[in-house]
Amino acid sequence: MGLGSVLGRDSCRSCRDLRASRHLHASPWTDRHERRSRRSVGSSRFAARPRRPAGMSAVPDSSVTDKVAPRRMQRSEGAASAQFRVVEGRTRLQRLHQSGCLKLRFPRLPRQQAEAILINSSGGLTGGDRLAQDFTVAAGADLTVTTQACERIYRASGGDTAHVTTRTTLEAGARLVCLPQETILFDGGRVRRTLEVEAAPDARFLLCESLILGRELMGESVTTGHFHDRWRVRLGGRLVFADDLQLSGDIAAAMAEPASLGPNRALATLVAHLPDAEARLDGLRGAIGEDGGASLVGGVLVARIRAASGFHLRQRLVPVLSGLADGPLPLVWSL
Q1: Could you tell me if residue 219 is inside a domain?
Q2: How many alpha carbons fall within 13 Å on the CB side of residue 54?
Q3: Taken in order 232, 233, 239, 245, is the CA torsion positive or negative?
Q4: For position 112, what pLDDT does the model report?
Q5: Where is the stretch described as Disordered (predicted)?
Q6: Which positions ≥6 away from 290 have C-beta within 8 Å?
């Protein structure tokens, strides 16, 4: 005899409530077992999976894969911008912005001028890299800019070119000495650099860029590549110096010409705007010697020096730059 016949069908109110709610005195073990069974159906590795449509192959179509764009390699990008002004008789940093692989450091100097050292944390440039630098020197301020180390232009892949843009603005009575260390161009390297200077008529500046074609002690030589150096200097809005130095294609053959580098592999370009520029011209020519020359163009001193190696070039540059700067050079320029 069942329990229901003894107590009656509706004798237990709790049973009626449970039946109405479809629990029917289910035990906790039963609930857990049912939930586990429901989960196992969906998670089983033998569960039915959607079938591949008819006519579709498991191997990708070569006509589709061939059209996939090549993966773009990671490239370095950096920007540095700084403004300087005079505060209590000393040149101080007013505003600074830096991003990416470019950093600026400012050593403490006993002198009244400021010094900024550019650092490229990527270790060099290759095709597709982009750097942008911007310096503003307010009225009466005095700034020296240099780099932590020589810049290296490595072999570019795929014909990409590295781009470096430098802009400087000099207000009335400002002074700028821009002396980055040498740039080493490796075989197959590609770079395009642009230097733009906007200076007040009474501003003073000394600019120098050096180029070395491979490292002599490492037995390196540069036969192909692309190097384009573009200079634009304006005084009071008037263009006073424009220069485009370009080495492209068969660099070794072009540089072997006597009117070019000849047996040398290092070259430096100097541009200076000084109050007594004309009086300094003869002394500058004597210091440069036969492997170079100097001219006065629109009130601006322009000089080029060539040497057998980077070390010999720096040996000749240090006394020339010290004389034009009327003071000591940055410590990183020490021989």
Answers
A1: yes
A2: 0
A3: negative
A4: 86
A5: 28-80
A6: none
Q: Are 270 and 324 in contact (CB under 8 A)?
A: yes
Whether residue 21 is contained in a domain is answered as no
What integer pLDDT is reported at residue 254 of this predicted model? 81
Q: Taking Cα atoms as reference points, which of 181, 175, 193 lies closest to residue 232?
A: 193
Q: Parallel, antiparallel, or unpaired: how do β-strands 102-105 and 114-120 relate?
A: antiparallel
- Tell me, what amino acid is at 117? I
**Token digits for 218?**
């490492």
Signed CA dihedral, 247, 302, 326, 264: sign only = positive
Q: How far apart are CA 102 and CA 77, in angstroms?
A: 8
Q: Residue type for 15, please? A: C
- d(CA 223, CA 99) in angstroms, rounded, equals 34
- Altogether, the residues listed in the chain come to a count of 335
Kindly state whether residue 286 falls inside one of the protein's structural domains.
Answer: yes
Structural tokens at position 209: 């860029």
Q: What is the pLDDT of residue 37?
A: 47
What's the structural domain count of the chain?
Answer: 1
The answer to whether 105 and 93 have CB atoms below 8 angstroms apart is: no
Whether 58 is in a domain gets the answer: no
**Which residue carries 């033998």 as its tokens?**
46
Give the domain extent around 87. Answer: 77-333
Instruction: Give 10-residue mean pLDDT values along the chain (335 residues).
Output: 43 47 45 47 49 56 54 82 96 96 92 93 92 97 96 88 97 97 94 97 97 85 91 96 91 79 89 94 91 91 94 94 91 86
The bridge status of strand 224-235 relative to strand 238-250 is antiparallel
